[in-house]
Every structure is written in C-alpha cells, then in structure tokens.
Design brief:
54% of the residues are buried. Helix 4 runs antiparallel to helix 5. This protein has a domain of 111 residues: Peroxisomal Thiolase, Chain A, domain 1. By secondary structure, the chain is of the alpha/beta class.
Length: 387
C-alpha cells in the first residue's frame, strides 16, 4: 500500500489575532489570512490550486477564490471534525491532484454564532433521527449543549481513576502560562494559578469555567505543497510524517454513552496507532504535542490514549504542571492551546509548525517531531510533523 509519509509539506501559515469581538466579517478575515499564509510560503496566489475547509465555516471557497483573484482552482472540499480538512489536503496533494492547497478557517464564534444545540441543527436539516437521539433522549436530562454531553464521560473518567481537580487544574494553568507569551492569544493576561482554577465556578459538573475553552473570532490558514516543490519555497518545509483519523462503533459526538466503557477515548487510540504506524515512530519520539483542550480534563485522557502514560495515569502526569511545560516530559499546547488562544480548530497545527521551524513564542530546543491531536470525545484526527 502506498504511503503519504513525507509526500507533503506545510510551507506557509498565518493567523489573525483572536478576540472576543473582531469587528470584522468572516469573509475579510479569510481573504486576509490566506494571502498572509501564501506570502509566508512564497507561493503566488495564482499557483494555489486547491482549497479545503471545515463544513461548518460559511465562507465558501468559490467566494474566497473570487475575492483573491485565484483562477486556477481545480479542487475544493468541505470536511467535518477538527483537522480532517487537513487530511483532504494531504491526500489531494499526494495523489497529484494539486500542487499547492490552502486549508483555512474563518469564524466569528465569539461575537456571532456559537456552539448551538443539536436539536436546532436537526430541525434545520430535517434530520428526524438526530431529533430522536438528541432531543427526545438527551435534552430532557439537561444535555442542551456540548459541555453537558462531554461532562458525563469526563465525570466517569475522573471517578474511575481517582483523578481530582487539583490534578486537572494544571492543564489550564500551564496553557495560560504558555498563552501569556503569545501575542495572538485572545486570553493572554496574567497566568492563572491552581488556586484560581479551584476557585472558578462550576458550569456543568464536573466542568468549571476555566476548564472550557472560550469561543473566539479569528481566522487561520495553512498552505501545503507537494514535497518536491516545497524545498524551493521561502520557508523551511515542515513535512507531514503521518495524518490520520479514528472513528468507532457506538460513537457519538461527546455522548457515546452506549459503550461498555465511557471513560476513555477509543477513537483517539485508533488514530494514534495509525499515526505511529505510518510515521514509523512511537510516543517516546514525540518532542511536543498540541492536544485538544476544548475541555481541560480531555488532556489527561488524551495523554493516556496517545500512549504517553498508562491508563489512569494522566491525572498524576499533569499534577504540578512540570511534565507539561517547556522542558518537561511532554510539552503541550505551547501557544496556549484552545484554553488560552481561544477555540479554533487548526491553530494547534500552526503552533506545531512554529515549533518545528523554531519560531514559537515558547520554543523548545531541537524539536524534530511534533504531534497534533483533535476531536477528543468524538471522531478524532491528528498529524505528526517533522523537520
């Protein structure tokens, strides 16, 4: 079987500032950030022949193409779940369909639309089966949004493995420390303390306010190129060693309650196994990881699922924060993560690129391999990058 390993490289990245209210249209931010990423790569806009994005983002490639004057587009796609559009970009390039592809996201999720109820989405799409699952079975019990749905599995994990708030709380503390150095982070004020975390109010038990990544306005763009073209471009290529996703039976987004064990992340385990297989590496080879911290307790769960420690050991791994900081056993979310930068899929890929390039605001020494994982609590996807 042919492998995508090292056939594609990330050659350009860009973000807008993330904020609670951009005061701008998603359209203008998308165009600005794509142009900036192309400039970062040294790729003329007219040479970009593929565009991919998340299906929930409303700025269609056709309109972005028109605004930027790109007349050579031969491929575009919408995809769901985290960084899975990146998988589409890599496969299009590896298959020879495109030479350069841009993955972009632009959303005013802080000031505009927010994560809404699945019941509303079901009514809009006339999906009666989703009505049955979400509205008839979940909403009467208070599960009106993703935090409530995620909280049940998280509570079971915390209970089954004796993980306490004094351990989980170090995730937002360390992310805030990293984010305080990142000029693009929306929440880059003075770093949090564990006392701040323990004093923060419960939103939906067991999730506290400081466990939940805030929605923000902003845009990101990533330019990928075929490997044979990447070496001649403006910036150091960051090669895709592997990209993969994982999905499982009895799976739902944050609410896989019909499984025998609801205290784990089996999709993340499946995705990780494929990443390691394709890249030909293991957990001990990874120098830095950008993990899905939309909900902070998912971080120790991911650390276990990705093989960085044993089952039930994630809480102890996080306690005190030293393992998670730059210089620790596994530096995580060195740009601040969703908790500090603000929740926007794809920005964790950009931070991984910065680490490989040596341009992070919290740079590790000698980074050769970086992992990105998203989709905790549902279909998972991720990528391993290297110099």
């Amino acid at each position: 079987m042919n492998s995508i390993k090292d056939t594609v490289a990330i050659v350009g990245v860009a973000t807008t500032e993330f904020s609670e209210d951009s005061g701008r249209t998603e359209y203008s931010m998308a165009c600005e950030v794509i142009k900036a990423a192309a400039d970062d790569a040294g790729v003329p806009l007219e040479d970009i022949d593929g565009m991919v994005k998340d299906v929930v983002d409303g700025i269609d490639a056709m309109y972005v193409q028109k605004a930027l004057g790109m007349e050579t587009l031969t491929y575009s796609s919408d995809s769901h779940w985290g960084t899975s559009p990146l998988i589409n970009a890599v496969t299009a390039l590896a298959a020879g369909i495109c030479s350069h592809v841009v993955y972009y996201r632009s959303a005013n999720n802080g000031s505009g639309k927010r994560a809404g109820s699945d019941f509303r989405a079901a009514k809009e799409t006339k999906d009666e089966s989703l009505d049955l699952i979400r509205y008839d079975l979940h909403h009467p019990f208070g599960l009106m949004g993703p935090a409530g749905s995620a909280g049940i599995g998280i509570r079971r994990y915390l209970r089954d493995y004796g993980v306490g708030a004094e351990q989980v709380g170090w995730v937002p503390v360390v992310c805030s420390e990293h984010g305080s150095n990142n000029p693009h982070a929306a929440f880059r004020n003075a770093p949090l303390t564990i006392e701040d975390y323990l004093a923060s109010e419960l939103v939906v038990d067991p999730l506290r306010r400081l466990d939940i990544a805030p929605e923000v306005d902003g845009a990101i763009a990533i330019v990928l190129s075929r490997a044979e073209l990447a070496a001649d471009l403006a910036k150091q290529p960051v090669y895709v060693g592997a990209v993969a996703m994982g999905s499982g039976t009895n799976g739902e987004h944050y609410s896989s309650y019909s499984r025998d064990d609801i205290a784990g992340l089996p999709e993340m385990e499946l995705m990780a196994a494929e990443l390691y297989r394709v890249a030909g590496v293991g957990p001990d080879d990874i120098h830095v990881a950008q993990l899905d911290d939309r909900y902070a307790p998912y971080v120790p769960m991911q650390i276990e699922a990705l093989g960085f420690c044993g089952k039930g050991e994630g809480g102890a791994f996080c306690e005190g924060g030293d393992n998670l900081r730059v210089g620790g056993r596994l530096a995580i979310n060195t740009g601040g993560g969703f908790l500090s930068e603000g929740f926007s899929h794809g920005v964790n890929v950009i931070e991984a690129v910065h680490q490989i390039r040596g341009t992070s605001t919290n740079q590790l020494d000698g980074v050769e391999l970086a992992m990105v994982a998203t989709g905790a609590g549902g279909p998972a996807d991720g990528v391993i990058l290297h110099s």
